[in-house]
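User: quick one, fold this
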Amino acid sequence: MTLAAILAEHMAKSVTPSARGVTRCDVGTVGAQRVTPATPVTSQKPPPKLSVRGVSDAVHLEPLPDALKPLRAHLLALAAGVGIDVALVRRLDDADVAACIGLDVRQLADYVSMLSGTADRHAGRVPLDDTAAIYCEQCGPIWIHPTIAEVLPVVDGWPRALGCPWCFVRKAGGYIPRPPVACDGCRHFTPDTISPAAGIGACGAGKGTHYPMQRRGCSHFDPIRKALL
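Assistant:
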C-alpha cells in the first residue's frame, strides 16, 4: 500500500504504512520521516495469442488476407461447380475462411453446401437434398437430410430430434416449410362425432376444421402417443 493510500484511509489516525522504511507514526510526523516507497508492481497480461487451425502451434499470428486468397478462390470454385451462389463465399469474413485451413476437399465441399443450406433456410426454402421428414421437439415437423433422419430414434412413427437446423429460423420468427401431415394422426385433432373417419373434425390447437385424412403442413402437429406394451 502506498503512503498516499494510507493517508487517505486513516486520515488523522495513527498508521503503519507498508512502505519499506516507514515505522508506526502519526500523520503529523510522517512528512518529516524518510520514506522509501515500495516500487509499484504493475501486472500486464500479454496480448492473447491467435492460432489458426491446421497451422503449427509455433505460429501464433492471424493469417493475412492475402494469404487466404487461394483458399477463398478454392471455395469459390467449389461453389460454382455445384451451382451454389458464389456470393455466399464472397461474403465470408477472413476469420471464417481462416477456419477452413487444414480441411480436405470433401470437407470444404460440405462446408460450402452447408452455407447454401443455411441461406435457403433463412429465405424460407427447403435445401435441395433435405428430403426426409422428422419431428423436432422445438419446431415440430420439418425437412432434413436423409443421412440425419436415418440415425435418429423413431418414436410414434417419427424420427425424433431435440433440435434441428430450422431452430434458428423459428427463433427469428421466420417461415418454415412443413412436410404434409394428416390431422387424424395428431393429438390436437377431435374427429367428427357422426363420421369420425371421414367427417370434418376440429383442431384443438386453433387451426380450424379439417378432414381427418387431409394432408397439409402444420407447425402444431403433435403425433399421437402410442401406448407402450
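User: anything notable?
Assistant: The longest strand covers residues 132-136.
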